[in-house]
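Table S4 entry, Methyltransferase type 11.
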Amino acid sequence: MASFEELVAEGESVPVEGWDFSWFAGRATEQRPSWRYARLMGDRMAQAERALDLQTGGGEVLAGIPKAPPVLMATEGWPPNAALARTRLAPLGGQVVEVGESDDLPFDDGSFDLVVSRHPVTIRWDEVARVLAPGGTYFSQQVGAGSVHELTDFIMGPQPISQVRDPERARSAATAAGLTVQELRSEALRMEFFDVAAVIVFLRKVIWTVPSFTVRAYYDHLQAMHAHIGNHGPFVAHSQRFLIEAQRPSRR
């Protein structure tokens, strides 16, 4: 069995660019939402003419669509991810534009009949509504309020759960932007971490779980996590996910 120091060294050495989670196989698990976002998104892409994926990460999910629309665009705010996405999406004819998560979108009004986003950091609902063509659809899987709070609390101590990511708040924001919400579903999903290296990689990759995380800053808490897993088995947390689909009304 690897020592705490060996696991820490491994956790610090794993690359964390992009949204490829294949490294976690055998080290951590996460239950998948029942609605299967990637399949549903792929079905919608196959019917679209002009589509946009916001905050695409490294393009991992978008690259898996079975059929690309004639016009396929993506945005990404982090340059290393944008470079990965350009490589992944080139075979689909996809173009990637570097845009910050909270910035205005560099597209004309009504440019897209489909806008999608998986786990956006922030949502500019006004910009989503603006770039959607009349009758166009926004389709997104998002992180819900209190996601993985058990891990946050273990590392940082008890923290208040922000309601910024509450699904009903998303409904209200979409409606205020002029969109009609057609579907809103949420689920809590079981996660298990089998060693402290997996915890470290997750916290380095999903940076909002413990803001400003470093091994040095939370060394004692990581030691406690290592002991907890050794004594009790996998550390259990729950991710929160919701699916939202909204439409820009057609012109009369």
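The chain has a mean pLDDT of 96.
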